[in-house]
Amino acid sequence: MIENSPLVRKLGAFVALSDSELSVLTSLHKRRRTFVAGRDLVLQGQSDQAAYILASGWASSYKLLEDGQRQIVDFQIPGDFLGLRSVLLNVSDHSIEPVTDIEVTEIHVDDLLGAFSQTPRLATAVLWAASRDEAMVVEHLVSIGRRDAAERMAHFLLELGARLALVGLGSKDGYACPLTQYLLADALGLSAVHVNRVLRQLREAGMVTFRDGSVVFDDYDQLANFAQFEPSYMDQRGPLLQ
Amino acid sequence: MIENSPLVRKLGAFVALSDSELSVLTSLHKRRRTFVAGRDLVLQGQSDQAAYILASGWASSYKLLEDGQRQIVDFQIPGDFLGLRSVLLNVSDHSIEPVTDIEVTEIHVDDLLGAFSQTPRLATAVLWAASRDEAMVVEHLVSIGRRDAAERMAHFLLELGARLALVGLGSKDGYACPLTQYLLADALGLSAVHVNRVLRQLREAGMVTFRDGSVVFDDYDQLANFAQFEPSYMDQRGPLLQ
DNA sequence: CGTCTGCTTGAGTCAGGTCAATTCTCGTGG
DNA sequence: CCACGAGAATTGACCTGACTCAAGCAGACG
Q: For residue A10, what is the domain's CATH number?
């Protein structure tokens, strides 16, 4: 069923898509591809890349500094775009590495831009999706700039949970999480050692347990309160554009 | 001259605009408004806002935490959008405060989305502009996550200089800068006291002087090298879409 | 079985924060 | 013209959250 593709579900939350728009959207889904964990899809500085939509698995977008430090900007979960910004800017400002083995569908820029002129509402929907991604990056920025390590970790685990819940991969009880403590460190701007200490602290406080590839919310409300988690920036409440 | 409006110049860098597209774009420019420094235009959580294009002056976008801490996400300079994300998401995830007295032109969402259906290439251009803004936020995130205070400050002053140079308000010699050390602190995730110390350090190293409302690059190359400043993510090299 | 990747914990250090005091405008009212 | 107060910049003394270095452990895999 085409209507169940992650992209359709995502864009449909903003724009009520007509049959003809759906079929244009469907025609975008080109080749299905798979990539193995750890081998980069896109490298910082490359141009003329394709964009992808993540069908299964997790990926990470990151930037490397010259001195070898790494900052992970965001993780992508099923339904998310990979490399959309890279194609629009023509040159990628970041690298993308699969965290697990992943399946994606490839989209060519020309097709995407062509689709915009046939069905302008699609352009609006994509612009909305991009804004939503940007809001997530902004919240991440605030976390790193102004929250201490424990709050930052708590907020991050909650946000990831909320995103996964939207695509049916998590709940307020917890979720399966393939990230290592090293990946958490690079995402949160901490050292791996400190990530470990903070996780222990949150676990001993009875709020979350991160262990063996799964996140368990031991006390969701207390955790949300501790992290000042305000998920309004990721709300989806029905198509805004009829 | 309409062709000289900051928005037209900005979008024209990505999409070669036809006369009819230009006239649609022009029709978007509604009421001209002014706001005084320090009084917020948009507050976190508000909905049904208008978007604006900044014509003169500087503004800041920030988020407040419940405990009163503030993180400035970005500063806007002439030609930049204000609150575009807020209208697309329908509810603002951040507040906007003018740093100086500012002049803006108001744009109504309905008009903007309507314009997309008449001239889809405009939608592509706006999507491109949004991607460029996002790339800036991402670079800011990397700075806060992985650079120490001095590198962060150096990188920030260089990026601002490059942005100002694009709209004719700065050069490699320096630029007029209305920011206070408190604003810098909230933008860089530092304390105001430490901002002061870092500025002194950079000044005494002969790289930049931040003083009396102006930034002077005493040794641009040394500073760029010190900050690992790689401005490729903000390059503009001619219309990509003919 | 040895090696590798990921997790855990302790000890010591330091970048950047907090608190506090001082100076320097500059606008405002007497 | 001068006293005053508010905002901004500056500097010192001290403290602490997070880092680095180092060591040890456990499961996975060839």
A: 2.60.120.10
